[in-house]
Amino acid sequence: MHLRELDFSDTDHILNWLQDAENRCFFAGDDIMPTRREVEQFIFSALYVAGNIYRVLSDDVDDFLGLVALKDIDPATAAAEFAIALLPAARGRGYAMLATDLLLRFAFNEVGLVRIYMYTSVENDATIRFNERYGFLPQEGPFQQIAIRGRLHDVKWYGMTKAQFLQIRQTTAPVREQ
Q1: Which CATH superfamily is domain 2-169 in?
Q2: Which candidate, 83, 18, 88, places its Cα nearest to that of 46?
């Protein structure tokens, strides 16, 4: 398993992933499926616009398993939002832990971040279990609700500092992406 840059050849994988109702049920916003062109614009932005880092988790034969991201990178605070989304077939196999390890090592050791945060709907039990099992700590966030398909949902915030990551994961080795 490794992380690699997002590529336009990933368009169909992302569209297929977005069509899965289980994936979309906790996405903020409406339930309108993006078009191929919109996914391609997202990939272009991910590749060429500063402020976000998206990586594909792929296996040894480069099969697309999911995405991990550092979003809204703030150079002033050296903080970013973390996000992860795996294909249904990749869930429950330890890939989320591996992808998170790889991206956070990269974030803290290569990008120079000192804090990662994320939020999820309080109804998203799987994400809450993952965050807590991984070692993310509950924290206060700037907002307490998000709109999903016209309905407000309470959110739970999590975070981790570089020092906490190094203590919990006991590693300082930088990750080399393939």
Answers
A1: Gcn5-related N-acetyltransferase (GNAT) (3.40.630.30)
A2: 83
**Helix (H, G, I), strand (E, B), or coil: what is residue 110?**
helix
Whether 81 and 70 have beta carbons less than 8 Å apart is answered as yes
Q: Write out pLDDT tens, residues 1-55.
A: 889 999 999 999 888 888 776 666 556 555 677 889 998 999 999 998 888 999 9
Residue with tokens 């080795």, as numbered in its chain: 173
pTM exceeds 0.85, yes or no: no
Closest CA to 102 of 157, 56, 49: 56
Q: What is the pLDDT of residues 109-142, one digit of tens each?
A: 999 999 999 998 888 888 899 999 999 999 988 7
CA 34 to chain centre: 19
